[in-house]
């Protein structure tokens, strides 16, 4: 996030803030930044411009293989016909919709409700719209899936309404109380803990615990772990992917 | 080389496992190429991937139905290409019983002339 | 919806900008922010080259990119991943310029009513004869400090280079 830019990447700040500076009528980026000290109203926009919202369809693949090959079959074996999912820090929604696609493709009898949340208003709005550019649909979405679940509308591809209806997107800060609507059988919390310090990571994981259904499953990003941060969790192998579950004693 | 049909070039490269095809080409369209390639028994193991600026819903459906395995809409990044190629080659590998090694071929789109 | 006779089709200028920027970010520069919309007075194109495709839809839309030759050479090196000092022959230049307009034009097709076949790209030292066709969109950018223009023209029906089904 903003404070940890590699040196040599300063020009990125310049290029990302330039449009804001221009629309605010500042002479240049430097004077815009000086103005920020006094103009709090612009802070959201700046955080947004500097935050990485990078995401993709079926990102890393393994979590979705695990979902399909193990997590959902287990829930179904337990007699579940409805599953609740929280896609936390969902960015523009690809993760949440990838879950919806997995269920539609392989578990059509299952009903699903997904809550997608993110700190940024802008990405939440985009997720809600469910419209993706050509470049975005190239990232991770097999062509057969694209034509099955998307319709073209002008320059963008629009997700099928029946999938969009399964997902609710909301603005939410991971540092606040978890979103209502739980407990969740599956929580995706990927590629966001990396931005936090250890104490904050621990805090966020503790909050996730409080809304995880008994036996529920947590997915973290490929570079993230609970190990050494919150001992309540254990790592479990599931159909080729790693997932996290609460240890027995705590889950009961 | 305007008159050279892309199919003929492929014959000179029996080690090709993946073929990237643009839609817009001189001589024949990429779509026609896929249709023709799929008629050839000896090419059934080649993975065909459309890589083109054409991205209409109907075009993607037609290309897949004709036998293309994947479809990349330009523009793309190296990661997107690798990911799509890996995905479709994985399908190919699963289909293919014996191990085979080979290179990647690209048919240079409209630049074929 | 069909275009009303006498009125020009409208295209979304912001979407056109985004299409060009996505192309440069992915296939030329590897990052966003190098191709930026120009503002103020545009510097003249030095030794200009022109490359275009025609989108056949309800009408024919010509997508035309103009760039100075030496900027075009840089663009060719970036797109074809050639070394910084590689000499650029006309064939490489035509390849790269054609690719630019093929991708941008093909993407713009989705913005054009009834967008159908796309022609093969043309490259020339002079602006193509658009037969007095009206300009429907004009955008200019700076890329590595040099200007590059992207214009859309509404050609009379049955004009333009042939497209393919
Ligand atoms: C790199 S993206 C990851 C998106 C997605 N989870 C994935 O793995 O593809 C990180 C996202 O975290 C969001 N984010 C950052 N800090 C946050 C916070 N405190 N609360 C909620 N979301 C946050 C950002 O807005 C951004 O969309």
TrEMBL record, chain A:
InterPro entries: Bact_Chemotaxis_MeTrfase (IPR050903), CheR_C (IPR022642), CheR_MeTrfase (IPR000780), SAM-dependent_MTases_sf (IPR029063). CDD domains: AdoMet_MTases (cd02440). Pfam families: CheR. This is Chemotaxis protein CheR. Residues 1-249 form the CheR-type methyltransferase domain. It comes from Demequina litorisediminis.
From TrEMBL, chain B:
It comes from the Bacteria. Residues 1-89 form the Response regulatory domain. InterPro entries: Bact_response_regulator, CheY-like_superfamily, Sig_transdc_resp-reg_receiver. The keyword Phosphoprotein applies. It holds the Pfam family Response_reg. Keywords: Phosphoprotein. PANTHER family: RESPONSE REGULATORY DOMAIN-CONTAINING PROTEIN (PTHR44591:SF3), STRESS RESPONSE REGULATOR PROTEIN 1 (PTHR44591). This is Response regulatory domain-containing protein.
TrEMBL record, chain C:
Keywords: Chemotaxis. InterPro entries: CheC-like_sf, CheX-like_dom. It comes from the Bacteria. Residues 53-125 form the Chemotaxis phosphatase CheX-like domain. This is Chemotaxis phosphatase CheX-like domain-containing protein. The lineage of its organism: Bacteria, Bacillati, Actinomycetota, Actinomycetes, Micrococcales.
